[in-house]
């Protein structure tokens, strides 16, 4: 086997949440007087934890977001998830990893609650037990810092250099590289040039087993 652990990002890799969450984020920031387009949101916040939104808004405007921002943003996102969220077609990949005895987990910039809501809606909870779910909630710094990926590797008992990360955001690619892990960039919805730092790019999940296991 090429790797002893495959670490999946969540949003955009396991669940097709990026269009929903970034549309909501852009709209909410605009309501609050920080004009943001969907494209702006993808560029600036995709793959990052919510503290990144606070940091960039403060840096750019000199104004802090309301204390209720996180609660209201998550309320809107979770409502949309429960009604509209769909899975990425990744079940066959997870089945192949499981059949080959290759451990896998998820490491997401989203909160544990966000992950759970999305996984219950899409059926991903059947593939990711709680002990294989890692969130930015668990560490002091989210992506692009390497902390989250390093924690996942440590808890799964695998050295960073034996891990493969599956990511669809530039922040996630940066975090994986900083953690000393190989990273595969999923380009189904993210332009390939934005993931240029990845070791290899792929556009369809059916390609992933070959990359991480050396099989078809």
Quick synopsis:
With 216 residues, the chain is of the alpha/beta class. The chain is 44% helix and 12% strand.
Average pLDDT metric: 95
The protein's oligomeric status is single chain
* Alpha carbon gap, first and last residue: 13 Å
- Spatial strand sequence of the major β-sheet: 3-2-1-4-5-6
How would a textbook summarize the main sheet?
Answer: 6 strands, parallel
Any idea what the shape is? globular
Rg, alpha carbons:
17 Å
Question: Approximately how much beta-strand content do the residues carry?
Answer: 5-15%
Structural notes for this entry:
The chain has 216 residues and is α/β, with parallel strands linked by helices. It is 44% helix and 12% strand. The chain has helices spanning 18-31, 38-45, 50-61, 69-84, 91-100, 112-122, 147-156, 170-178, 208-213; strands at residues 5-8, 104-108, 133-135, 163-167, 182-186, 200-202. Strands 3-2-1-4-5-6 form a 6-stranded parallel beta sheet, with helices on both faces. Helix 6 (112-122) links the parallel strand 2 (104-108) and strand 3. The protein starts with a strand and ends with a helix. The model has no long low-confidence stretch (mean pLDDT 95).
């Amino acid at each position: 086997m090429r790797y002893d652990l495959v670490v999946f990002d969540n949003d955009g890799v396991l669940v097709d949440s990026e269009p929903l969450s970034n549309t909501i984020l852009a709209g909410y920031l605009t309501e609050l007087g920080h004009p943001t387009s969907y494209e702006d949101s993808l560029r600036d916040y995709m793959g990052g934890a919510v503290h990144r939104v606070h940091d960039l808004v403060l840096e750019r405007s000199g104004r802090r977001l309301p204390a209720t921002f996180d609660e209201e943003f998550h309320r809107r996102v979770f409502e949309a998830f429960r009604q509209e969220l769909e899975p990425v077609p990744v079940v066959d990949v997870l089945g192949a990893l499981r059949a080959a005895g290759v451990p896998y987990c998820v490491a997401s910039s989203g909160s544990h609650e966000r992950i759970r809501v999305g996984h219950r809606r899409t059926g991903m909870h059947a593939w990711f037990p709680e002990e294989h779910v890692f969130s930015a909630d668990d560490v002091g710094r989210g992506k692009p810092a390497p902390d989250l990926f390093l924690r996942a590797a440590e808890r799964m008992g695998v050295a960073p250099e034996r891990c493969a990360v599956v990511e669809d955001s530039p922040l996630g690619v940066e975090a994986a590289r900083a953690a000393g892990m190989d990273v595969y960039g999923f380009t189904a919805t993210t332009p390939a040039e934005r993931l240029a730092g990845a070791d290899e790019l792929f556009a369809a999940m059916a390609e992933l087993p070959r990359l991480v296991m050396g099989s078809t």
